[in-house]
Amino acid sequence: MEKYLRVFKQFDSNGDGKICPVELQRCVGAIVGEMTEEEAADTVALLDSDGDGLLSLEDFVRVVEDAAEEEKASDLKAAFKMYEMEGSGCITPNSLRRMLSKLGERRSIDQCGDMIAPFDLNADGVLSFQEFQLMMHGAAP
């Protein structure tokens, strides 16, 4: 929470414990480029949980954590696509074998099937994206 508070205080230039549209516009503009007053006001209105027209620390933390989760999900989808490789929407023993081979690991189709099996919840012999997510999050099958 301390790291969020430090960043929040950078945005909250007047120190009132809230981020107004002008403060948001100034900081976002300095970090990622131009943000209009209208965009800043719209953003604050969208993210403001108590309707006071300002972002609280809690609003700020929620936004930052949501963005981090979206980035993780995007990275996971990209990783899945690397292993999937067949356009089938799933990781097959053959596609897993090919990807492992590119990474320098030699495995047989049977070995790859054995690697998939513990996370293959519906026992169809392949990993769907949902099964891949569980595997990558370390969830026990």
Automatic annotation (TrEMBL):
GO terms for molecular function: calcium ion binding. SUPFAM superfamilies: EF-hand (SSF47473). Residues 1-34, 35-70, 71-106, 107-141 form the EF-hand domain. Keywords: Calcium, Metal-binding, Repeat. This is Calmodulin-like 38. It comes from Perilla frutescens var. hirtella. The lineage of its organism: Eukaryota, Viridiplantae, Streptophyta, Embryophyta, Tracheophyta.
